[in-house]
User: Fold these one by one.
Assistant:
Number 1:
Amino acid sequence: MTIKTDFDAVVIGAGFAGIYALHRLRNELGLKVRAFERAGGVGGTWYWNRYPGAMSDVEGFVYRYSFDRWLIDNDVWRTRYIPQAQILAYLEAVVERHDLGKDIQLNTGVESAVYDESGHFWDVTLDDGNRCTTRYLVTALGPLSSRNIPDYPGRDLFAGRIVHTGAWPADLDITGKRVGVIGTGSTGTQFVCTAAGLAEHLTVFQRSPQYCVPSGNRPLTEEERAAYREGYDRIWEQVRASRVACGFEESDVPAMSVTEEERRRVFQEAWEQGNGFRFMFGTFGDIATDPAANEAAADFIRGKIKEIVRDPETARRLTPTDPYAKRPICNSGYYETFNRPNVTLVSLKETPIREMTARGVVTEDGTEHDLDVLVLATGFDAVDGSYRTMDIRGRGGRDIRTHWKDGPTSYLGVATEGFPNLFMVLGPNSAFSNLPPGIETQVDWIAELIEAAEERGAAAAEATRQAEDEWTLACQISAGHTLFPKVDSWIFGANIPGKKNSVMFYFGGLGAYRARLREVAEAGYPGVTFHGARSS
Ligand code: FAD
Ligand code: NA7
């Protein structure tokens, strides 16, 4: 039996993924779709992360959609990387251009989604108490949208403000203030570079030292912008076939196959050109996979820290010793910032935070760091974090949290067994790459799968256990070829206390991932079971 539902599809989230899913399903498939977004505006990451210095660290010509040429021909971006406010304006323009706003309900969180097995529909409950039903549920919750907020004794006593970078308040101006920042990932280092020029004093609380390279941000020339427009099709073809999808050719040259002098020349050239992904994947083909190659790159960056940072003790604390195997970080002058008289580095490995007081943060050595604002750049409960804050129940009332108790899994990053017609964008074990092209890839595939289900007259499409297990294994194998599991980071869930460390990405590259999706679709979706018959 199938019932008439309120919507054909409900999309949760209105970031890059939710916006494109709404466009694809409503404007191209002709479905009746409603998107729900907890925030007061569209944009997802770029709505929430308004901290000083926020910008993409993938270059602007590929940190965008490819589906609509108009968007590049009429875009106003002028720098190599796009600042937060411009990405947000861009996403708002996409929504307007494709008339999506009328079907996006803002300020509305989805609290639960329960699958009705006999009727083949999802029963969705919103945080305003309203409910609706839908045949398809597309979760575009964001892989980095559930904030990690550490708790410290005495936190409530602090007389200043505590903010997370992922929920930066519109009214907060740090100019002339005593600012502390905990966390030195992509976000923390971007913040530090900008905040040092604004704050009266900036205290950087660092847990793990980081390998950073310059972003090389600069204004684009008219010629470059014209080249992006003229080379549009070729650029996107290359992006889709590449590994990290960042708009450059990855190197295939093993680092140890060249002389030390040549290696240093290549690293120096990449350092001058800027960009973290280019440094890790464009210099040599095995920085992320071969320990000796990795050590050569790490050693080069360590040498730069020594050269740049004037105080030897600060340089020592800033210098990482573990492999260079996290998502590569780039920014504008991070190490140089520590030469400023108004910036202090505190190593939390040497002096952990003991407590907070009305005045600020006290470290184990008894020092009280006086602050007006404490910024938590402490990252996110990545990938499955946003799923775990919701009550999602599939067939037989199965709770997604129980389903993923040994770590999150999926079939191809988009579906999971026991949860029919639930399609995830950037679900666990999606491709590790620049994300907008990954999002477009998945949304297109989900739309095609929905079309296939409709054509068959099926009421539901669901991943099989076997297919999901095989994909999980493929992802584990792909991660095992890299050095990434050797270092603790959000990529494996290691940043969240108590979270089970597991593989959460496919490391075989976007090109290989897309080829696999294509193969599955062309073979008629082995790995997907089509259930029931849809009454017209
Ligand atoms: P999001 O943009 O996170 O959107 C998800 C939306 O879902 C959010 O608005 C959230 O409010 C909403 N939501 C979640 N749960 C619910 C619920 N239950 N009910 C209602 N709404 C809900 N990626 C790159 O590839 N390159 C970069 O350079 C890059 N830079 C980044 C910089 C920062 C500071 C951050 C935080 C992330 C960055 N990322 C980058 C990752 C970025 O998240 C993705 O590129 C992309 O924006 C993800 O889009 P999304 O739509 O999947 O998720
Ligand atoms: P990250 O990369 O997870 O970085 C978070 C930082 O916060 C990192 O330096 C962490 O140290 C630190 N951290 C996390 N928890 C704590 C606690 N409890 N105490 C002290 N320090 C802590 O998040 P980002 O937001 O920077 O980047 C995430 C992605 O979003 C990134 O790839 C961009 O695409 C944007 P650690 O290294 O774990 O020791």
Number 2:
Amino acid sequence: RTASIVGCPFSGGQPKLGVDKGPIHLVEAGLVNQLEELGWNVKFDGHHQFEDIKYALSSSSSIDPSAPTASSAANDDASTSNHWDPPIGILKNPRLVSRVCEEVAKVVSGHAKNGELPVTLGGDHSLAMGTISGTLDAHPEAGVIWVDAHADINTAATTESGNIHGMPVSFLMGLDGNHQAFASFKPGPSPSSQTPFAWIKPVLKPSSIVYIGLRDVDAGEKKILKENKIKAFSMHDVDRYGIGRVVEMALEYLNGGYAQGDSKPRPIHLSFDVDALDPSVAPSTGTPVRGGLTFREGHYICERIWETGALVGLDIMEVNPSLEDDVSVKQTVAVGCSLVRSALGETLL
Ligand code: ARG
Ligand code: MN
Ligand code: MN
Ligand code: MN
């Protein structure tokens, strides 16, 4: 089979520089070769640049480029807004994030419809709006397993940070809290005046996602998870049941009531944020939270999903090679590569 690497050097969904270098490091560490050694035919046509998107947005902007931007303090801050992409409410870089994800959705959907397995390398987790839109376009019946310390389901009404990497799931579900935020937005003909995220079809049903690894969920997110009866296994559940039973329960949940033909399992998109792993395992990431998955627990999830034969899309997100020391970066990049290998069939024996 063919795996298509979709390299997405993008950091606009969060404020820390460097996460855009994640995919470059993963590929330079030899990921393509490693997958070929597992027997995959690997397609990789270079990292996506998104420069044309920035150019189209900036050159079509009706906003006066000489106008001062909201804030120019703290300049390790990738979220400092471009004059052509001012915040909407407190959402940072909304036009850029939206357009980049729209592009990623097309790329992922194209590969998937070709019968290839798209492996998207982030980049920050806002990219999942693109990858999951793409997967569901090609496989509308797919379920999502979201492995993360965070739920990334804030809406424009609940986000406290304004960082869109904390929001992709809410947009994919078309949750109410987002509608109001864009209600007063006046769309125009140019790329920069399109209503951000209006392209997203709310195709992800609350019953079609399962979380594993949660331990840093905002109050507003907890409410959203409850109200929508979303299935989530926190680290508490991993402690209680062990990772083996947690993954079985997650798979049973997604496959419950799913009947297509006789024995074909439901297609699965795995979106893996490396901050699901304990910071001692994956230190170089923008929002580390202690008490995470061990090296084996993380890999076990990937191995077990591979075993189902149902994997149709994979994301490895939030590797940030600019954070922590060289040893930590090497370790985090190596873990990112080995998670991909496990999800693509590497076995221990
Ligand atoms: N919940 C926090 C927020 O909304 C953190 C999100 C972290 N997300 C991530 N993809 N690392 O900002
Ligand atoms: Mn490609
Ligand atoms: Mn996270
Ligand atoms: Mn995440």
